[in-house]
Amino acid sequence: MAAGWSLKGRTAFVTGGSRGLGFAIAQALLERGAKVAIAARDEAAVKAAADRLATGLGADDVLPLVADVSDAKSVNSALSQVHAWQGGLDIVVNNAGPQLAPSPLAAVDEQILASAFDTKLIGFLRVSQAALPFLSQTGSGAIVNVVGATAHMLIPNAGVTGIVNSSVVALTSYLATEAAASNIRVNAISPGMTKTEGWLAKNEAAGKQQNKSAEEVRAGMAQGLGIRLNRWAEPAEIGAAAAFLASDDASYVTGQVLAVDGGMTKPVA
Q1: Is the dihedral angle over the CA atoms 25, 43, 162, 132 positive or is it negative?
Q2: How many whole angstroms separate alpha carbon 42 and alpha carbon 105?
Q3: CA distance 93 to 143
């Protein structure tokens, strides 16, 4: 187990857990002792991810589930299965979201925005609503939403993502107020540029076009975006932040958004 706070005895549910940040967060929770259920729409992908996560662990440490966050019936079924699996639920990580192509708002189809809201904002709400009756009220109950830097800073052609992410920030705050009566904490992390599979592939493609290495592409973007640490995040660094907010070390933290972006966003107050 990794050094640091322990999540032993906790049960977690992570949406979008078959790849990217969801996979990294699931891995971080497992490393700290939690049992983790991961959900995604692609059955083959979520089972393969569970096999990778379970390497060196017990057979009952990871539960793969096929679920679609845009379908309330699917979400309710998944949460019921998680609760039955370990007899309880402590941690929910809302991570599943759409992959959007950059586009100016003036040219975007309104259905793209509607679909993004349905998958991410309303999807997070569906999962949270289904989870709240199952989440522990003894102090271990926690919801962590994955937002994004576009909620806090302007990034060209990322208006749809920014609008949806900003809405998730509001959801986090309102839900934290309501869930506090049940002793459940609700927070969010806002990752910056992270070396996920998707971004690594984009960096490679951009490097070939620009006659640069993928690392040179990332370095240029880090400089252009003004990332204070002047590098991209490793997925494990995002996972560790989510695990912290789910842990007892964050027992007096709720309704907050933790920027995990190397200092890319620069609030003054």
Answers
A1: negative
A2: 30
A3: 6
Read off the tokens for 94.
Answer: 């809302």
CB-CB contact of 53 with 39 (8 Å): no
End-to-end, the C-alpha distance of the chain in Å comes to 38
Walk along the chain (269 residues) and give the pLDDT tens digit of each residue.
444 579 999 999 999 999 999 999 999 999 999 999 999 999 999 999 999 999 988 778 999 999 999 999 999 999 999 999 999 999 999 999 988 888 999 999 999 999 999 999 999 999 999 999 999 999 999 999 999 999 999 988 999 999 999 999 999 999 999 999 999 999 999 999 999 999 999 999 999 999 999 999 999 999 999 999 999 999 999 999 999 999 999 999 999 999 999 999 998 87
Assign 7 to helix, strand or coil.
coil
Q: What is the DSSP string of 17-82?
A: TTSHHHHHHHHHHHHTT-EEEEEES-HHHHHHHHHHHTTTS-TTSEEEEE--TT-HHHHHHHHHHH
- The answer, as to whether pTM is greater than 0.90, is yes
CA separation for the pair 200, 1 (Å, rounded): 27
Query: 188 exposed, middle or buried (CB, 10 Å; 0-12, 13-18, 19+)?
Result: buried
CB 165 within 8 A of CB 148: yes
